[in-house]
Design a protein that fits this description.
By secondary structure, the protein is mainly α. Helices cover 54% and strands 4% of the residues. A five-stranded parallel sheet has the order 2-3-4-1-5, with helices on one face. It has a two-stranded antiparallel ribbon with strand order 6-7. Helix 6 runs parallel beside helix 8, helix 20 runs antiparallel to helix 21 (450-465) and helix 22 crosses helix 26 (553-561). The protein starts with a helix and ends with a helix.
Length: 673
């Protein structure tokens, strides 16, 4: 090996070795390897010379790809010509291919044209082919794929990956006439029960005969396949539709294919027991690239491979969206540069809504902060903003459950020390995030600090402890944040403590905190412990002690729940026998107890004895006022207004009061006579 080759070998060795930087620098200095700074490295790139020729192996691969693309494009043209010739001979003019949408024009016509999920599509085709035999066997034989015990299949997966297209293609290849109902159709309970064709005969065959085709161009036979698209989109307008569909599946005489986007949707739970679940995954970019390049070649568009990869990645492998973007671009230009493709992808970028579980698994996984990851800091912060209230809680709950990648090449005490350092830095960052969150949700409302909170609470802690964790083969599963339950429990205990403090303040002078820390632990030996030590004999003393502080049975339960350490509620309640608890409750309910205060909602109510005595009296009939009294009072008022100096002392001179003295005058005159 020459000296130059040795230098190259040593350079590659030290560049790839996972050693700390200071060890690499010491080794480079020891071996005398030439080093380059940033400017020298950029100059080396700018001044390098090469042949510009492609490697022979890569050249053969590219030639093979181009050949396959040309063959596939020719097959498309040949098929379109045959379809046009067939429609002309039958006298029925079919649609002009140039006027069709690309998603319809270039829909797969065979299994080899499907991009991704080919194994699932093959299972679906086999299930449709064996469905008549399964029907005769009363769906008791599972078959090769264990699918033949179900009358229906539920296909789930992201939009635009070919679920509906695969269902139509498999139905066509198996000899069925597909009838599709999607979100644009009314699918209520009544229409599902009465309007669907559940017999093993197509409605179209009655109208047009056995040699006719339906609106999709599929030959009509005596067999029908029902395709229920967007089942999870059945909204209030389709009330009862999912339940009626589930009942229809149980007695169906035809195969039914249900399609949905969200596998975990609540409204799909009734279908999970009666259908075979089949999940479709997003195809990889290389699986979609060849199909897209075939279509662009046929449309005479000049698009480099990296541009197509960029469009596929930006659309989250949504083939339908890519075809729509390209068909729109074709109206103005037949070429697209890398920068134009980047701009188009940014304009039509498809954001995937992820659950907090998926976000936590992704950001704590081994790839998010790896040297080969191309995501910027802004892209990582976008994961936080998908659910900024839950993601920090998930990170705080699960950041210690991963196996950090930075510990991969360490062993022994050095590994333990490094792990503690990473945990300390992650915990410190989460603490800083809590301080920032206090400024955001506090009285000052500094919402401009949200990006800083994203870094401190999510991105920075994950950058220390990322590695093999949940969903990546790690030993620990992902947990739901316990803070939510503990916070709810704390709020409930605070309310209970406030109620106890309001009652006990007539006897105790402490505030809520002093009550929690000093009074309640002091009450334990008098109102809780005697039930464990003395049993039912201590019930009367406990009730007397509780009455002295105006505590009721609910307050006793709150005192037990507020216990900690050896007085923790679950420990205490296990030590009290059930018979003692029942005796305590019966005795308390059977006796009367003092009340510290009346609630506002109890004020103004009639006493229980009065309420049960009979009909409530009419207050308007309790006092009758004669007409003479009214006239006499008017005269007194008029006379009083005439002589203000003769005003009587007492309530008789008050104009706001009417004293019924007019009745006594006739009685006195009668007595005098």
């Amino acid at each position: 090996m020459s000296d130059e080759d040795q230098d190259i070998f040593k350079t590659r060795l030290h560049a790839r070795a996972a050693f700390p930087l200071w060890i690499k620098l010491a080794a480079i200095k020891k071996h005398g390897i030439r080093t380059l700074d940033e400017d020298a490295f950029l100059n080396l790139i700018a001044t390098r010379t090469g042949t510009g020729e492609i490697d022979e192996k890569a050249k053969k691969k590219m030639e093979k790809e181009q050949k396959d693309i040309k063959i596939a494009a020719k097959e498309m043209e040949k098929r379109e010509k045959q379809e046009a010739k067939a429609s002309a001979s039958s006298g029925h003019k079919g649609p002009d291919p140039s006027m069709q949408l690309w998603t319809t024009r270039y829909a797969p016509q065979s299994l080899k044209e499907i991009c991704g999920n080919k194994s699932s599509v093959e299972k679906l085709l086999l299930w449709l082919q064996e469905w008549p035999a399964s029907y005769k066997a009363d769906f008791k034989k599972p078959g090769k794929n264990a699918m033949n015990t179900n009358r229906a299949v539920l296909i789930t997966g992201p939009p635009g990956i070919g679920k509906t297209t695969s269902a139509h293609l498999c139905a066509k290849l198996a000899g069925y006439t597909p009838i599709e109902l999607n979100a644009s159709d009314a699918r209520s309970k009544k229409l599902v029960e009465n309007g669907m064709n559940v017999n093993n005969t197509s409605l179209d065959s009655y109208i047009g005969g056995s040699k006719q085709t339906n609106s999709l161009g599929v030959a009509i036979t005596d067999r029908t396949c029902l395709i229920m698209d967007e089942v999870d989109g059945m909204s209030s307008g389709d009330r009862g539709g999912v339940g009626a569909l589930n009942a229809l599946i149980k007695k169906s005489k035809i195969p039914i294919i249900c399609i949905a986007n969200d596998k975990g949707a609540q409204k799909l739970k009734p279908l999970q027991a009666t259908t075979f679940g089949m999940s479709f995954q997003k195809p990889q970019a290389n699986q979609v690239r060849s199909r897209i390049m075939t279509i662009t070649f046929k449309e005479k568009m000049d698009l480099p491979g990296n541009v197509i990869d960029q469009l596929i990645t930006g659309s989250q492998s949504d083939i339908r969206q890519v075809l729509n973007m390209l068909s729109t671009w074709k109206l103005s230009s037949s070429k697209m540069t890398f920068d134009e493709g980047k701009t188009l992808t940014k304009m039509n970028e498809k954001y995937q809504i992820m659950s907090p579980f998926d976000i936590t698994s992704k950001i704590l996984g081994p790839y998010m902060f790896s040297p080969t990851e191309k995501k910027s800091l802004g892209d990582k912060m976008e994961l936080y903003f998908q659910d900024h209230s839950f993601v920090p809680l998930f990170i705080q709950e699960n950041y210690l459950k991963s196996q950090p990648t930075k510990l991969r090449n360490l062993e022994g005490p050095e590994k333990v020390l490094k792990q503690l350092q990473l945990m300390d830095r992650a915990a410190s960052s989460i603490s800083d995030g809590d301080l920032v969150d206090g400024m955001i949700h506090g009285p000052e409302q500094h919402w401009a600090l949200m990006p800083l909170h994203a870094v401190c609470s999510t991105v920075r802690p994950a950058s220390f402890v990322f590695g093999q964790g949940a969903h990546y083969g790690g030993p620990n599963g992902m947990s739901f944040p316990q803070w939510l339950g503990q916070n709810s429990k704390q709020s409930k205990l605070n309310r209970q403590l406030a109620d106890i403090q309001i009652k006990m303040r007539l006897k105790a002078s402490g505030d809520k905190h002093e009550l929690r820390q000093q009074y309640i632990p002091a009450l334990y030996p008098y109102i809780v412990r005697p039930l464990i030590e003395d049993g039912s004999d201590a019930v009367e003393d406990i009730i007397e002690r509780m009455d002295g502080y105006y505590l009721n049975k609910e307050d006793w339960d709150s005192v037990v729940e507020l216990g900690v350490d050896t007085n923790k509620d679950d420990i205490i309640l296990k030590k009290i026998p059930g018979a003692v608890k029942a005796a305590f409750t019966r005795k308390y309910n059977a006796t009367e107890h003092p009340i510290a205060y009346h609630k506002a909602q109890d004020l103004g109510k009639a006493p229980k004895k009065l309420a049960s005595a009979g009909e409530k009296p009419d207050l308007e009939d309790a006092f009758e006022m004669d007409e003479d009294v009214a006239e006499g009072s008017d005269e007194e008022e008029s006379s009083g207004s005439g002589g203000r100096g003769k005003k009587k002392d007492g309530i008789e001179g008050d104009k706001l009061l009417q004293v019924a003295k007019a009745k006594k005058k006739p009685r006195k005159s009668a007595a005098g006579k």
